[in-house]
Amino acid sequence: MLFEVWAPTARRVALHVEGEDLPMERDPERGGWWRAEASAGHGTRYGFSLDGGPVRPDPRARRLPDGPGGLGAVVDPDAYVWRHAWAGREFEGAVLYELHVGTFTREGTFDAAAGRLDRLADLGVTHVELMPVCPFPGTHGWGYDGVAPWAVHEPYGGPDGLRRFVDAAHGHGLGVVLDVVHNHLGPSGNHLPEFGPYFTDRHHTPWGAAVNLDAPGSDEVRAYFVGSALAFLRDHRLDGLRLDAVHALVDERAEHFLAELSAAVDALAEELGRPLFLIAESDRNDPRTTAPRGANGLGVHAQWNDDVHHALHTALTGEAQGYYADFARAPLAALAKTLTDVFFHDGTPSSFRGRRHGRPVDRAAVESHRFVAYAQTHDQIGNRARGDRLASHLSPGLAACAAALVLCGPYTPMLFMGEEWGARTPWQYFTDHPDPELAEAVRQGRRREFAEHGWAAEDVPDPQDPATRLRSCLDWDEPRREPHAALLAWHRALIALRRAHVSPRTRPADVHVDFDEGRRWLYLRHGGLHVAVNLAGEGAAEIPLTVHTATELASWGECRVPEGDGLLRLGPHSAAVLR
Fold first, then answer.
1. Residue 279 in contact with residue 302, Cβ under 8 Å?
2. Which of 132, 133, 285, 503 has fewest C-beta within 10 Å?
3. Is 78 a catalytic residue?
4. Could you read off the pLDDT of 317-356 as tens digits, one per residue?
């Protein structure tokens, strides 16, 4: 078997395989690369020693059986026998479901999560979006501290566990999207700098030195991350990737890394004969993210839209701190703008940033499905001091209103696990750092962060306490009780209506919204679908429709459809979907 590693500054490199050290030779055709032949097969342990130093795992190891600090293991991607044929599932028309493997079930494994996939298929979602599964120190964590972008976290089940999960999902007709982190690596167990210039001091990010995308040596670094993305899509039969915080991918080259990645993914989709896609998390509000590469865009197929979340959150809760401030001045007006114009900040002043922010989209040209909308995400829940979900302090009626606007709105909708039944279990920030100094730094940093917003230290959950993770696990008994059972049925009905009545080809110019800020009602229409909500806690709302009569498709709470006068009457905290 041929072993290869990129180590451009090393004077000598040794391959450590099955307890033996074998000298490696420079590759005469690829600068900085070393190679050696050795007898090995599926499961063989190996690593590399640079200039006589300690043995380190292969940066491209597909499996780390003993965690980030241990040796890699050879993985034969053809060793897994797939049970279900899969032609892929397009992103157009998708309903996403964000899922964290470690808390979706108490067991916290791929196999345990796969055992619940029938619930998601019955709900009607189309794609499961897994939070990061690359190896990180410890057993439990969010996954954004991963240190091995080609491998799979062993406590979850390793690469074969991921394949079993994907295979099971495909058997239920569900696509699988994986959240990948290219903008940084975790603070513990990251050995990449020993191998080469994977990071650069030319740019800085919230996590320190930036990934080297444009400095000397960046050709190989870019190939490293593109290669890991393609390997996950190809070898694990994934349907798409969610790209974490792409605004932190600092790249001054003429061709941005994201354009290179999207071109490679499109080429792989052509080669495999099935659809593949990329979803970016970006806070830039920049239409170029999803614009085609031929139009000088980055060619990413879709992006999260936090502005929809912020507007909806302020309308539901009245919160006005931090980045909610601009939205909270007139929350229904902000919500109306995000539903029709995509971005709230589209070149307008942002008080949180202290400057103008964003650019407008071409409402007549871009398709609405390229933007992902949501009422909750792992970030928007978990980065609150107590990790409290909306359902823990909103009425079921307001949760139903939020679901109607997201699931029957113009954008690609996404739910966060448990949201479909109004889960009240918190989803808190938790870590499992074996390094006691790092663990204490994270603990104190979390407390300091929220102390600035008036939280007492004892009210901020300890990320290192195992109880914090356990509190964050879903309670699968909740959906059997009210009001959770009713909310679950409501979400199921809305998804079915979306499938029947919402066109993925809708454009923002086709979307219209009326609202009354004082009376707190909003009326959304696109295509033949009309969605109305009354967010007021008292009194019925009389909402003038653009038609004299309408057919009720679904409603929550008090609802009287117009009978010739064009007035829809909705009780407090009520919602209706009409045709």
1. yes
2. 503
3. no
4. 999 999 999 999 999 999 999 999 999 999 999 999 999 9
